[in-house]
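go over this record:
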Amino acid sequence: MTQIQEPPLAVADRAATDGLLRCWVRETGVERPDDGVLRLEFPSSGTGVEVPVRYWSPAGWHRFGPARLRSGTPLPAAALAALLGTEAADGDTECVTDLTGRVGDSVRRTAAFVRARSAAPRDPDGTTAFLAAEQALITGHPLHPTPKSREGLTEAEAARYSPEARGAFPLHWFAADPSVVQSDSSLDRTAQDLLASFAGGLRPPAGTVLVPAHPWQAQDAVHRPAVRALLDAGLLHDLGPAGPAWSATSSVRTLYRADAPVMLKFSLGLRITNSRRENMRSELHRGLAVDRLLTAGLARALRAAHPGFAVVRDPAWLAVDAPDGHRESTGLDVVVRDNPFPAGAAEQALCVAGLVAPRPDLPDGRSQLARLVHRLAEASGRPAHEAAGEWFDRYAERVVAPVLWLYATYGLGLEAHQQNTLVVLDGTGLPVGGRYRDNQGYYFSPARSEALYGWVPGIGRDLGTYVADEVIDERLAYYVGINNLLGLVGALGSQGLADEEALLRRADAFLAGLAAEHGDRLRLASLLRDEPVLRCKANLLTRVHGMDELTGPLEAQSVYVDLPNPIVEVRK
């Protein structure tokens, strides 16, 4: 795929338009046009839009040409968002305004990233393969209306703190009285001692505990009433920046250093895509509880069944409590995450979302996955589609199968979408294993999690994601099935690397094998291959209706719609 040389803003607007149209097609059930032109009617606005279809993807990763009004007037992404929002918002003009503003914000930020990366296409010296993939998602989630919206960041802050801009910066430090600090650790030292080792020799006031923060969060937190009260009472001291630079990863708020044994996941009170990304106390407990479960025996069982797959652990956390009378959190907390990917690591573990993402900042625009597939094809003398099929099969067996094995065997569901999933590659670029990371995304089945109780009695009951199998099935069908596995089908197909129908048949055979192996313990495998429709998260409608995916009851955090199952469709 050769990139058309376009100005960065045109590249960003085209990517945003494609994302909006993909969402609308998926979430409203628009069918493939017979003549190659998508025609959308918007009765609420009294107008319509016409868009050439450049590629129609059974998995939903369509590619479109320029959008125009029926009159022929070109339609930029923000104007398209206003039309879609007006049609979907049931007269709620505030939602339309919010959506339009976020789309515009996402476009501007994407353009800035493309501009900066095009001017400096090479990663800085010392960038590990892990970090390069974390920072490679330039245009964002292909089925999200506002993938790069970061409400609250100035342009200067975005350039400093964004992974796409290769953001790297020192931590900001506070010192807190021990009476307002909570922490826990399964490491051989306390969270306080470990975190203090990253402060670059900073000396806190006697008797206090060093507390690191993301510098943006530190700037925001000092204006919160709870933090101001702690500062005024002398229970918290603002010490400023110190220590070496850390690099932003794909989530923006998780920071990495190639020479550090851990990564640090901070609260960040920005609206990134749909939600304010602040750690909930339940998530801090959940990550550490799973770490202890892995240590007690689950890691050994997983390694025995799937030697190449592991969970990236969250073995410690620290948080500053709000003083009495303040309901708002301080926003000063940190998850300590294991770092299995330091400089010189033998494994090449890459974020799947970054691996499959097209690279409009590079001359050929190709994703790293496309480069891997073509390299495999050239080395073996095969067509690209055969190499892509082998890559897909290996990925399914080494990355997806272990996730579904955990659910079938122990009732532990992992919210393994492409950004939370890492694929481990061998020297030729083929998958040999995978990693999962995210302390928010563990689901425990009341019906089947008893299989874990021999290691940790009652695990999951008090961690906030103890929900019925029907709910877990719906979530995993989307995150693991649609977003991850079928998302890989769409990425390979839309980038001209393979025929999607052939890949869907491979996915069908893979799921049939799992269904035969696990039977009723993995109804999800049969659901993914046999149900005529799948429940799919609707990112555009979730955004239009102002829902926050991280708050409220688990069953009602997002809009879900029915999606025709492409595996069933191809079997017809």
Summary: The two ends are 31 Å apart (CA to CA). The longest helix spans residues 93-119. Residues 348-571 form a domain with the Transferase(Phosphotransferase); domain 1 fold (CATH 1.10.510.40). The mean pLDDT is 94.
